[in-house]
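User: My instructor asked us to take a sequence, write out its structure as tokens, and then describe one feature of it. I'm not sure where to start. Here is the sequence I was given:
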Amino acid sequence: MDKVVIFADHTIGFNITEYLLKNQIDFQIVGVFTNKTEKSWWPSLKDLENKFNIDVLLFDHISSYTFIKKYQPDYLLLLSWKHIINQNTLNIVKKATLNLHYSLLPKNRGVYPINWALYSGEKETGVTYHIVDNNIDSGQIVAQSKIEIKIYDDSKSLLEKLDSLALNLFKKIWINRSEWKHSTNQIEANSSYNSREKFEKSNCIDLNMEGTFYEFINILRSKSFGEYSHAYFYDEETNKKIKIKISLTIEDDTI
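Assistant: Let's start with the prediction itself. The structure tokens for your sequence are:
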């Protein structure tokens, strides 16, 4: 029976963890780690503790390494995971460490891939499950699924669509996990990478920038997460930061 450890965050991390805990037939979840145990805009994995009689632990590198060394899992699952896992930890995992990334790798490696897809005006994006290696989002691809980006999507609506896509795809690949060893290499010539610093710098809108209104809408919707927005500019007279957000709705013009 395969032993599994999960590092999970956000709604998709909760949903996949719950799915696995409900369906432990030929595998056993021996541990769950998360970044945040209190409830946020996504459900807390702590809610699964009593329901499934499993400890949900707050992640740090030392305790998670000690845990994995103790239990020697066959699989480590990284679900919407922000931290880079060190090689010493990865070396303990017997069969594979699988990561979920919200882009069609090798495009948009790194952080905020959903936002960058919108920012760049891409017409489609998707989810990728890949084997973790010693570089960022560069490991062999297990499976991908794509989705069309609508002009009215912002980062929140697109995330919700990708959450659903990711859960459905995971269910398909998990039952065939013995085949992950036949994964496909990424094509490095098609790769792109985005850093946190690059994203934070792009949040400040240059009021003198040139471009089309379409490009400006793409920038604003990439920075909008429902009612929240990362975008801002500075008022030249007061030097105060002015937040910008955009609301995109489909108007029903039927009579």
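For the description part of your assignment, you could build on this observation: The first helix runs from residue 10 to 22. Try explaining in your own words what that tells you about the chain.
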